[in-house]
Design a protein that fits this description.
The complex is a heterotrimer of chains A (about 280), B (about 290) and C (about 375). Helix content of chain A is about 75%, strand content about 0%. Chain A is mostly helical and about 280 residues long. Chain A starts with 9 loop residues before the first helix and ends with a helix. The longest helix of chain B is centred in the N-terminal third of the chain and has 35 residues. Chain B has a two-stranded antiparallel ribbon with strand order 1-2. Chain B has 15 helices and 2 strands. In chain B, a hairpin with a 4-residue loop joins strand 1 and strand 2. Chain B is mostly helical and about 290 residues long. With about 375 residues, chain C is α+β, with helices and mostly antiparallel strands. In chain C, strands 6-7-8-3-9-10 form a 6-stranded mixed β-sheet, with helices on both faces. In chain C, helix 4 crosses helix 5. The chains are: A mainly alpha (about 280), B mainly alpha (about 290), C alpha+beta (about 375). Chains in contact: A-B, A-C, B-C.
């Protein structure tokens, strides 16, 4: 921490060590499986590494032992993108609505909180039985999408509340005063100003859906999503292929997070560009 | 004169804006939960379920000694996890807020703590296996250092592994709200306390902890409900030796005993909501969100 | 231009739930006038301004601009432009795009509207900052951008919601001058909401004093300051002492008033009054003579000095006359220094009878500007 300008006490070093340990605790195990996923062909689930290879990644791709990984992957990505778009849109408008008083605002807010705290598998049971009672078939793109939204929407709504805290509604009034119609206000003022926050909501929408397991389990119907396939692999697969799929799916998550962060950073930078010119 | 609603936008606008969210939440949360409650009064024979109105499922759940031990086990998991996550979460947030002075570093380190939230829980759980296993890194280290003669078995597939995984997965849910509350504390308050002659531990107890209460409460709700709703970690990381309420429920679902599972679920939801509302009674979380 | 930008407000009421924020207000603002609306917060001045702008719709009554009824017309279509208290500049747009915004939503091409916006920025001396974003500007610069944005559509009426309140004292005085100059250059109607009395008096052709959703007085600054309509206006605008008494007798237009302590006052302009009626009247604080010894029995007051404040050009002396309200005298500083006073000393104030101003209005609230 080279930026330290004043003297640090022993408390600082103790806390810094504690924090560093926590970060190691958070990331250490993941790093181990990333390493082990490059295990040599004859290597096992633990150290030592017997050579370095991409054998287990190829194995994932080519072997039929691991079920329909490709299909599950594409379903999860599609679900993630759908959840992302629906979450961003629903939460934007709902967040705007919650700035005013309306009938049912309280119950709807509490229903969202209930959805966050109720065990996921139980909600999955409810959704699947509700579909059954209506005589509907379970489909990953319908019942599982609904289950994912029951998880992503409340999160998105809470983030939207935080984002809107810093949104001054006189911007919208100023636009209306200038003669803008509601659609123009939305397109030229509200959405552009809120855009970094919307990216954060979208990031939650995608990743929470992409990694969702308990709510999906009973609602996907015949075709599985990737987390369900992976959870099956944890009990069936005893080769480093398990780590390889972990590395692949984590890499995708990290990629999505990086894209979101970079997008937010670029927008913030553009807004502050004048500051840079002045300096 | 700010907070006034604008007179010239339509009064139906908020209803139209909130409709998509409301429809999804009612269809995918409200009605399914009602379905679970409904099912808990139905009958089943392990092959199919039949509409009925019977209290037999509740009688079975409430009179079975297994139920009580499942709940106690689950609460025990929740309590230990809560204590660990609260201590870690508070200490890390305290370090970030009061010891990292550069805002860029503060935000960067905070994000470092939160990034795993956006990755797969299953993979993060699995990643403990090569570390804790019989031939795992930790046992290898212990044997090499001569601390134990033979590898320890209790590290993996035990309650220890279950709780370790919980702490690993859920500490983020404590750090984020606690950090948020703590970051809003005006540094002048700490200065004023020091000025008034308070010692560091007094500042901690009388200023910082009371002002971090809402964050701790929010984190508590997250951690407790997540632990109580889990079935996968307890099943895999205990190697099938321990069970929680939801993992037992999952077994009943697998055997198609939906009504019994539903009765257990209703009981669990009631316990969870009771605990959440108890926490909400102590602190006003909506005001925290509004800040 | 003049008639085109006249504002007629007829029996306008605005209800919020059961609260009458604005209560059956009638007001005409002449085209090309500088109108200041003043009153304590919650008096309805901002609501009235927002109804003229079209951001609020009256619960009843009608508003016309240039003779055309605009009561139900959309904001943006009624020839008004509102300048917001916090300026509400769009944080994600450059100054050029902020100023060009109205033209953009009217479908004007990018090159054309940007050229117009730059010309407008030139006019407020900010052309060199055209590509900056608002967060980079000082308060005074932001205010000029907000002005430019409001004026780009050539409005008939410019509405200003506490435009100077976010600025520091020095800048406030400078911008006040600029606003006045701009208004006389453009020749359009300015309606300016403020809670600062000197600002209203310095800028306005017409001052509208409001309280509890009602207009107490709408007149020239000289009238409002010198000849307030009610005890409330006298106290709120300052510069006056409010006194009370009962009419003893009326002779023609001249009445004699007896205060509770027995002092007699001559009221010149008392037409329509009858003996026995309670009345309130005011006396300008800067027209009163103070002396250490009793001089006259009529048109006078006396009391113990409770406070002395040096104000630069004058000295403010506060007396406790035992009538509840403090009695204040502004003494010329030379005159004061010639015979300095002390707190606790009893002094005698006298003034000419023609200075007694009858307060016809009945609003007797304290008029303290609660910020």
């Amino acid at each position: 921490m080279a930026h330290a300008s004043t003297r640090r006490g022993p408390a600082f070093y103790f806390l810094a060590a504690f924090f560093a340990l926590f970060v190691a605790f958070l990331y250490g195990p993941m790093l181990i499986i990333f390493l082990l996923s490059f295990q040599g062909t004859s290597g096992g689930l633990t150290f030592p590494m017997r050579g370095v290879s991409t054998h287990w990644f190829v194995d994932l791709w080519s072997s039929s032992r691991y079920g329909d990984l490709g299909g599950a992957f594409s379903r999860s990505v599609i679900l993630g993108v759908l959840s992302m778009l629906i979450t961003a849109a629903c939460c934007l408008f709902a967040g705007l609505a919650f700035r005013r008083k309306f009938w049912g605002a309280g119950p709807l807010f509490y229903l969202s909180i209930v959805s966050l705290v109720v065990p996921g598998i139980l909600l999955g049971l409810g959704i699947s039985q509700f579909f059954q009672l209506l005589g509907f078939q379970l489909h990953w793109w319908l019942s599982a999408l609904g289950a994912h939204l029951s998880w992503t929407l409340p999160f998105g709504l809470l983030i939207m509340f935080a984002v809107l805290n810093r949104f001054d509604s006189s911007w919208e009034e100023a636009a209306r005063d200038a003669g803008a119609r509601p659609a123009q206000i939305l397109a030229y003022i509200t959405v552009p100003i809120l855009f970094p926050g919307l990216i954060a909501v979208a990031l939650f929408g995608f990743t929470l859906s992409y990694d969702e397991y308990p709510r999906s389990l009973l609602t996907v119907g015949g075709l599985n999503t990737l987390p369900i396939e992976i959870s099956n692999m944890t009990t069936n697969v005893t080769t480093p292929a398990l780590y390889a799929i972990g590395t692949v799916t984590s890499a995708i998550s990290f990629l999505v997070i990086a894209i979101a962060f970079i997008a937010i950073a670029i927008i913030q930078k553009n807004r502050a560009r004048a500051r840079g010119e002045k300096a | 004169m700010s907070g006034r609603s604008s007179g010239s936008s339509s009064p139906v606008a908020p209803y139209l804006q909130v409709a998509p969210l409301a429809i999804v939440m009612i269809a995918m949360v409200g009605i399914p939960l009602a379905t679970v409650v409904l099912l808990s009064f139905w009958e089943s024979d392990g092959i199919s379920i039949y509409p009925a109105f019977t209290l037999a499922n509740y009688r079975e759940v409430l009179t079975s000694p297994v139920t009580l031990s499942l709940f106690l086990k689950t609460l025990q998991y929740a309590a230990i996890t809560l204590v660990c996550t609260a201590l870690i979460g508070f200490t890390c947030s305290y370090f970030l807020v009061f010891h990292v002075r550069d805002l860029k570093w503060q935000i960067g380190l905070f994000l470092l703590c939160t990034i795993p939230f956006w990755t797969s829980n299953i993979i993060r759980m699995v990643s403990w296996i090569p570390f804790l296993g019989r031939e795992g890194l930790f046992n290898g280290f212990l044997v090499q250092m001569g601390l134990t003669s033979a590898p320890l078995d209790v590290l993996l597939y035990s309650d220890f592994a279950v709780i370790l995984t919980y702490v690993h997965l859920y500490t983020l849910f404590m750090i984020v709200p606690v950090f948020n509350s703590m970051a809003k504390i005006d540094p002048n308050l700490v200065e004023a306390a020091r000025d008034a002659g308070a010692r560091p531990w007094q500042i901690l107890c009388y200023v910082i902890i009371p002002l971090t209460k809402t964050g701790l409460a929010l984190g508590t709700i997250f951690v407790v409900t997540l632990v109580m709703g889990d079935f996968f970690v307890v099943r895999v990381m205990s190697g099938g030796q321990s069970a929680s309420v939801v993992s037992a429920m999952k077994n009943e679902i697998d055997q198609l005993y939906y009504p019994q599972a539903s009765a257990m679920a209703v009981l669990l939801i009631m316990v969870v909501l009771l605990m959440v509302s108890a926490v909400l009674r102590i602190v006003d979380i909506r005001s925290e969100l509004a800040r | 231009m003049t008639d085109q930008s006249r504002i007629d407000i007829r029996k306008v009421t605005k209800l919020y739930g059961g609260v009458r924020a604005v209560n059956e207000v009638d007001l005409t603002i002449d085209g090309g006038a500088y109108c200041c609306m003043i009153g304590p917060s919650g008096c309805g001045k901002t609501t009235l301004l927002r109804m003229i702008a079209g951001h609020e719709i009256p619960s009843s009554g009608a508003i016309a601009i240039g003779g055309e009824d605009v009561t139900a017309l959309r904001t943006g279509d009624r020839g008004t432009a509102l300048m917001f208290q916090n300026y509400a500049l769009f944080p994600h747009l450059s100054l050029t795009d902020n100023v060009a915004f109205s033209l953009r939503v009217r479908g004007q091409g990018a090159d054309q509207r940007r050229a117009a916006a730059r010309a407008m920025l030139e006019r407020v001396q900010l052309r060199h900052l055209a590509d900056r974003v608002p967060s980079e500007l000082s308060g005074g610069q932001q205010q000029r951008v907000a002005l430019a944005r409001a004026l780009i559509t050539n409005p008939k009426v410019l509405l200003l919601d506490e435009p100077l309140s976010a600025l520091d004292e020095f800048l406030r005085l400078r911008m006040r001058v600029e606003l006045k100059r701009l208004q006389s250059d453009l020749g359009i109607t300015f309606v300016h909401v403020t809670h600062t009395q000197p600002e209203a008096i310095a800028l306005a052709d017409q001052v509208v004093v409001m309280d509890h959703g009602l207009i107490e007085q709408a007149a020239s600054p000289r009238q409002v300051y010198g000849r307030p309509h009610s005890p409330y206006v006298a106290r709120f605008m300052g510069g006056q002492n409010v006194l009370a008494g009962k009419i003893e007798k009326v002779t023609g237009a001249v009445a004699v008033i007896a205060a509770p302590d027995g002092t007699r006052y001559d009221l010149i302009d008392a037409s329509g009054l009858v003996a026995g009626a309670p009345v309130k009247f005011s006396v300008r604080r800067d027209r009163i003579a103070l002396s250490d010894a009793a001089t006259a029995a009529r048109n006078a007051a006396h009391g113990k000095i409770v406070n002395i404040e040096y104000q630069g050009t004058f000295v403010k002396v506060s007396l406790d006359t035992g009538r509840g309200e403090e009695f204040i005298v502004y003494m010329d500083d030379d005159e004061y220094l010639a015979a300095p006073k002390e707190v606790g000393q009893v002094v005698y104030a006298t003034w000419k009878p023609e200075l007694n101003h009858f307060l016809r209005g009945t609003n007797d609230s304290a008029g303290t500007p609660h910020e």
